[in-house]
Amino acid sequence: MSSIGSLPEDFQKCVEFHRHLCPGLAIGYAVAKAALKALDLQASSDEEIVAVVENDSCAVDAIQALVGCTFGKGNLVFRDWGKQVFTFFDRSSGRGVRVSFVGPVPGHEERKRLREKVDSGVATEDDKLRLLELRDEAVAKLVSADSRDLFSVTEMRTELPPSTVPVTTRPCPVCGEYTVVSRMVDKNGDLLCADCAQ
Ligand SMILES: [Zn+2]
Ligand SMILES: [Zn+2]
């Protein structure tokens, strides 16, 4: 990771959060930058920006680190649709932006070939070094690329995902553990926690 010091400081923060350097994280960084620019916003530490992510790849960690959308705060919504698409909403203005990665990841084919060699245990030391070199090159290019070359960005106005609703909990009648009522399962007329209902 010799080149990390030359990467933007806010990207280094993403690496700290994610605990490794990878092109996926760099994609997420570029997504977050493009979205904040399109919405004319600074990164927020509260809940005014909501991100809806359509995959659970490394990219999402950059969005959490940079935009402050996190699972725990409820402003990071995961839709398991397997697409490199990220939609952001600004609750205060009602504006939204959909960022779709159209790629390509620089050096992707060669990295894929080398990864397969590593996974099957036949990679040479040179292969492993080349893999790192390709990773660093891809990261550097993605982090500094013009977002118009990487993404299709569409501004939108749309209904916001509901903001945090107060939750009611009650003890499960079988195990006694407090459970959010809307997550309990009706079993012959009794509301049980999902564990006990199985
Ligand atoms: Zn990663
Ligand atoms: Zn239970």
TrEMBL record:
Name of the protein described by the UniProt record: Formylmethanofuran dehydrogenase
Residue ranges of every copy of the Formylmethanofuran dehydrogenase subunit E domain listed in the record: 17-152
Cited Pfam families: FmdE
InterPro entries: FmdE, FmdEsu_dom, tRNA_methyltr_O
